[in-house]
Amino acid sequence: MNKQNIDWANLGFAYMPTGERFVANYKDGKWDDGVMTADANIVMNECAGVLQYAQTCFEGMKAYTTEDGRIVVFRPDLNVQRMEDSCKRLEMPVFPKDKFIDAICRVVKENEDFVPPYGTGATLYIRPYMFGSGPVIGVKPSDEYQFRIFTIPVGPYFKGGAKPITIKVSDFDRAAPHGTGNIKAGLNYAMSLHAIVTAHEEGFDENMYLDAATRTKVEETGGANFLFITKDNKVITPKSNSILPSITRRSLMYVAEHYLGLETEQREVYFDEVKDFAECGLCGTAAVIAPVVKINELGREICFPSGMDEMGPFTKMLYDTLTGIQMGRIEAPEGWIKEIK
Ligand SMILES: *Cc1c(COP(=O)(O)O)cnc(C)c1O
């Protein structure tokens, strides 16, 4: 195996076609076995369910090279479970769990030359997704689906140190109380584009979405969950049925409690409380945890005392412990690490 000639440490988060991807098709009520293909393009009917009514969902996870040179994937079983939840909510067929895990392993293995080496900070991002490929013109579920997994090498999120994030409280809502905010459906991201482009134009990195019903409680950003540290060192994360259950956030809460001995709490968090927290972080596969320095609400600013130039001390401990587990430097809880090679 020869690694690709890539400047790993300077990669961003951008698509590039890699060697092989997995493709399976659902037709006549069943999935075929699936194949690996070098073809990065898809040909489908003009009236496919995904094109007309956005019947599609996805997942995102990473493969890492550990300190001792193994290639591992972090908690893929949780991604598989979450995609099952997404599929059921969108009336899409579930891709069987064991075959899903096998396909993840296969795609990573066959793209081993694209898995960034240990120490570069880069990782292999894995993108499973499913879409309605059969034609529908009346609004109903498609009869045919395609399930795919491709991989891309992605650079370290923090190039040259942590970059603290500034956020605005969005004028838009992300998810309705009994809507689709808790699944990884493509439609949630299409409708967030105007909000994020607007935030960027105004000079902010991200949006904080409040609960749509009362606009008093913190939900999440367009692609990451919130963690807060109180002044007495408690780790708090918002609870809501319209938040996407981040695997990174769930893992960090576990790490906080079982590795760092901190008190943790998942509960409703009112926006009015946010000014009293000591640290604020955004959790997701991309960054693990990214420190938030400032939150702007209608021109009023909340600044966090730590995290102006670097991560606050608790954010950093959480980051170091979870990345240590992912990179094989710290022993992982049972079942968290799926060894590929
Ligand atoms: C994917 C995603 C996250 C992060 O989830 P992870 O499993 O930690 O990567 C958080 N919020 C939203 C809206 C997401 O789409």
Uncertain residue segments: none
Radius of gyration: 20 Å
Shape from CA axes? globular
User: Approximately how much beta-strand content do the residues carry?
Assistant: 25-35%
| Estimated helix fraction | 10-25%
- Round the mean pLDDT to the nearest integer and report it: 96
Number of E strands: 17
Bound molecules: pyridoxal-5'-phosphate
Report on this structure.
The protein is 21% helix and 26% strand. By secondary structure, the chain is α+β, with helices and mostly antiparallel strands. Strands 1, 2, 3, 4, 5, 6, 7, 8 and 17 form a nine-stranded antiparallel beta sheet that branches. It is globular and about 55 Å long. The relative contact order is 0.16.
Question: What distinguishing features does this structure have?
Answer:
341 residues, alpha+beta, nine-stranded antiparallel β-sheet, globular, binds pyridoxal-5'-phosphate
Task: Spell out the blueprint of helices and strands.
Layout (H helix, E strand, L loop, with lengths): L20 E7 L2 E2 L3 E3 L11 H5 L2 E3 L2 E5 L5 E4 L1 H14 L7 H14 L12 E10 L12 E10 L10 E5 L16 H5 L2 H9 L4 E3 L16 E5 L5 E4 L8 H12 L5 E4 L11 E6 L3 E10 L2 E4 L9 H14 L10 E3 L2
Parallel strand pairs: 9-10, 9-15, 12-13
Antiparallel strand pairs: 1-2, 1-3, 1-8, 4-7, 5-6, 5-7, 6-17, 7-8, 11-12, 11-14, 14-15, 15-16
Helix pairs in contact: 2-3, 6-7
The structure holds pyridoxal-5'-phosphate (PLP).
